[in-house]
Design brief:
Strand content: 15-25%
Order of helices and strands: EEEHEHEHEHEEEEEEEHEHEHEEEHHHEE
Largest sheet: 7 strands, parallel
Oligomer: single chain
Shape: globular
Low-confidence stretches: 303-310, 327-408
Helix content: 25-40%
Number of helices: 10
Structural class: alpha/beta
Distance between the termini: 36 Å
Mean pLDDT: 76
């Protein structure tokens, strides 16, 4: 494949009730930086119509062009019409990358058209980096329980497809620039849509479940006793003028709804104040509030006789980093310190953990700095996952299986030194 024939990066702008979703605008702002580094144009793709006020928000993100698509089959979101549309557009116009918001619908149709195009699709990246040497986008995301940061690239196939979780990037418009508006009509046979909408009822908006814009958040973890103890934390959140949230284990216990989950499998928030109770400090939860202005952890560990082990580990790692010492153990506490805020040393921590030297994990190149379980003889000969300390059939990327043969991807595991 001649990659030089693929130019410009696309962002799919998802809409609801005539408004562009915030995750789409966030992606446009972040993709603007990638396009500037790559010397390519940024194109926003809108399916259906949007009011002029919403188009102005898209222009303010610094897009070079807006492509609006209309036609039959797009009256309501459905994966059949959307997957066929993006397959057709990508084959005709050859973008170098297509970025989609990691909503329920975005995660559904993006892998479908990527599969039809024979390219790779990565999900839930926490950082996007353009590599000038290879011309590829590096999708950085936690893997193996947060013990390393996986850097996923699509080195050969095009376009590069990825879904990004809402709230991952900040909405920081780069300013309006000359922007071309192109209208395109592409019809999709309604008879080929395999889903039928029997009725539609808009979900009643419960403000207590909307934690994305909360300025103060009180988060409860698996350390709380049960539902009877939630009242005190809810009252604290009300006194602070904020919202109550939780970690994934609390939801798994059935104590709070999923919309209140913060972390890699839930929401990403940026409050001014974040207080957590009974939270262990796992990296998959820390990534959900890393950009909070002020953070405080309240915890106890009777087995070890010390208070707040998560915060203590983070502070210890912070002190070592400021002295220029190497992190201990698997580096999870070091990453936690970066998330808790390090003042002048924060950038050093972030750089030290997210950008260490890579380990080649392609066939024929044994992994370097592999997890402890992967050292020595693989437990399951012939299974590529066994070389990285993963269960058989798990690629460690949250896909539940091996990377598809038709979608070549390179995965480099970055381990704190």
């Amino acid at each position: 494949m001649d990659k030089s024939m693929y130019r410009d990066m696309w962002v799919y702008v998802e809409q609801e009730a005539g408004q562009a979703l915030p995750v789409s605008l966030e992606l446009c702002c972040e993709a603007r930086k990638l396009c500037d580094a790559a010397g390519e144009k940024l194109v926003a793709v809108v399916v259906g119509s949007l009011p002029e006020a919403e188009l102005a928000k898209i222009r303010a993100c610094g897009v070079d062009a807006i492509l609006t698509v209309s036609g039959t089959g797009y009256e309501y979101p459905n994966v059949d019409a959307w997957a066929a549309l993006f397959t057709k557009l990508c084959e005709e116009r050859r973008p170098s990358a297509v970025l989609v918001g990691g909503t329920i619908f975005g995660r559904d149709f993006a892998p479908r058209f990527a599969c039809r195009l024979g390219t790779g699709c990565t999900s839930d990246a926490t950082e996007l980096v353009y590599d000038e040497k290879t011309g590829c986008i590096e999708f950085v995301e936690p893997a193996v329980g947060g013990r390393l940061m996986a850097v996923i690239t699509v080195p050969e196939a095009r376009p590069q497809v990825g879904t990004i979780r809402p709230g991952t990037f900040k909405l920081s418009p780069a300013g309006e620039r000359p922007c071309a508006l192109e209208e395109l009509r592409v019809d999709f046979p309604v008879s080929e849509i395999r889903t039928e909408i029997l009725g539609f009822e808009r979900e009643a908006l419960d403000e207590s479940l909307n934690i994305a814009d909360a300025e103060a958040i009180v988060c409860v973890g698996n350390g709380i006793k049960g539902a009877e103890s939630l009242g005190r934390y809810r009252r604290l959140a009300e006194l602070l003028g904020g919202k109550l949230a939780c970690t994934r284990p609390v939801f798994d216990r059935g104590l709070l709804p999923f919309k209140l989950v913060i972390g890699q499998s839930g929401a990403v928030v940026k409050p001014k104040l974040y207080i957590c109770f009974g939270v262990s400090g796992a990296i998959n939860h820390v990534t959900g509030f890393a950009d909070a202005a002020k953070k405080a952890a309240v915890n106890s560990d009777p087995a070890r006789g010390r208070a707040c082990p998560a915060l203590a580990r983070g502070r210890a790692a912070l002190r070592r980093a400021r002295r220029g010492a190497r992190p201990r153990g698997d580096g999870s506490a070091h990453r936690l310190a970066a998330a808790l805020g390090a003042g002048a040393g924060q950038e050093k921590l972030r750089h030290h953990n997210l950008r260490p030297h890579a380990a080649r994990t392609q066939p024929g190149h044994p992994a370097q700095h592999a997890p402890r379980a992967a050292r020595g003889q693989p437990r399951h000969p012939g299974d590529p996952a066994s070389r990285h300390g993963l269960p058989p059939g798990d690629d460690g990327l949250g896909t539940g299986g091996q990377a598809r043969a038709g979608a070549p991807r390179r995965v480099r595991g970055r381990r704190p030194r």
